Amino acid sequence: xxxxxxxxxxxxxxxxxxxxxxxxxxxxxxxxxxxxxxxxxxxxxxxxxxxxxxxxxxxxxxxxxxxxxxxxxxxxxxxxxxxxxxxxxxxxxxxxxxxxxxxxxxxxxxxxxxxxxxxxxxxxxxxxxxxxxxxxxxxxxxxxxxxxxxxxxxxxxxxxxxxxxxxxxxxxxxxxxxxxxxxxxxxxxxxxxxxxxxxxxxxxxxxxxxxxxxxxxxxxxxxxxxxxxxxxxxxxxxxxxxxxxxxxxxxxxxxxxxxxxxxxxxxxxxxxxxxxxxxxxxxxxxxxxxxxxxxxxxxxxxxxxxxxxxxxxxxxxxxxxxxxxxxxxxxxxxxxxxxxxxxxxxxxxxxxxxxxxxxxxxxxxxx
Length: 367
What we know:
This protein has two domains: 2-127 and 306-359, Rossmann fold (3-Layer(aba) Sandwich); 131-299, Rossmann fold (3-Layer(aba) Sandwich). The protein has 14 helices and 15 strands. It has helices at residues 20-28, 47-52, 61-67, 79-82, 101-110, 131-148, 178-189, 201-210, 222-228, 252-255, 306-327, 329-335, 337-340, 353-359, and strands at 2-5, 32-36, 56-58, 70-72, 90-93, 113-116, 170-174, 193-198, 215-219, 234-237, 263-266, 287-290, 293-296, 343-346, 349-350. It is globular and about 65 Å long.
């Protein structure tokens, strides 16, 4: 199979979908790899390294899309890239289509097979390719939130962990999955006062045991959210419903009751955000203010730590990519139901129920 690796063009997106070692493994398995020139530079990988691994260097994005049977990306394509795709081509990347109606329509029109990293399931029902970026985004959410709490950044002028004689900032985390747990780890480590709200009591029990009562845990109810959010100096949105739009747990009215200079980091922005006032931002313009509350809602947070993110991503995506390229789509889908759940679109049809429901489109089961 011919595999194409284009350079990412989303704002300040420095990751690349395959490392040179990953390219070497693909070439060793008998596949042709075409990578757009300088695609890996942002992650610290030079064209020469890919060349030594056996990949071919394409001088344009158009050449990559023209040559490839399968396009491996990091983030969802921009609309300008959709015009380069052709029917039957496989797109293998993070998609988050439930929050992107225009892109969904463009990919349907292109009749590509769109495989979303975020909906591929392992045998135990977990989401293996979502996990590494969720871990990174969760950890980053606290350090970013701590920065925007600084007065010069528009925040309340609080040190997250406080100092002796001065209480620490209150961090409220909505969700205790991979993102929420990673955020909790860093917030506790920085000395913050932490409250975690989650539906799954077993996850709360795990956090309570892990941190020996240093974290306040609350079952997710409307009352719990209404009581906790106005007291938060830093609010982290860490809610995930696989493949679907995130539920809006925090209303605009509740935001208006937060203290001026408080900070929100909505990691769920990829799926539309779990806070009513969330709207996607970019690394170039990462924040905006609503009712005096600073909102950070960048949809590709791990892109600013690209070396860590690229290496972590390749660790999880490469085995599936090797299998897909070697065995072909039909065989992979037939033998791995969890991989089949990753196929969001196929031949002009929506094959992911959550995406179909998000946009009012007809759901066409793949199998």
